[in-house]
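User: I'm curious whether this sequence folds into something compact or stays loose and floppy. Could you predict its structure so I can see for myself?
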Amino acid sequence: MDRKILSTRTLLLGPLCLITLTAIAGVLMPKRALANDEMQIKGTFTVAYSGTPNAGGVSFCGGKALDIAVEAHGSGYSTLGPLSFSLHKTLEATGPLMHGCLVLTAPEGDTLIAIYDGTEGPQNANNFGDGAITLIFTGGTGRFRDAKGNANMTAVFSNFYPANSFAGGTTAPLQGVAFYSVDGTVSLE
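Assistant: Here's the prediction. I'll summarize afterward.
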């Protein structure tokens, strides 16, 4: 008789434990793993860039073909983990406007894509300038597929040897380094 009671308890206890463990796992699951959830993106990136006169009239992400075409690559770390940074943009030679496409790539290859719109400030006597950028996330691949959201980005940049570049009258590209800080939200739909 005791064996029959023990067997019935075991049969009832097994499913109850499974239900309890499933409930605990649901509560402890990171929020960013849930669909339709908004997650924060904060991070910093260091990039090197090169710019040339936009003689071909290229534009990126539906923007206007501004005076200078810039390509930038680098990496950094964010609340989404480590990400590489790839930017193609155009900017005004004498004005503050910038527009382009940004792709952030995780080590496993998932990409987060954003439209990059901003303004840059004047450079100081030591050749440092700053910028204010708005990112609009438009999608991606892998875990960032169908991503939406936006972020504010600030930049500090410096051009290397501008007198030896097209800005100084030669045909060499303008090169430099930029430091970006990003703060915003991404929603995975």
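Summary: The helical segments are 2-28. The chain has one helix and eight strands.
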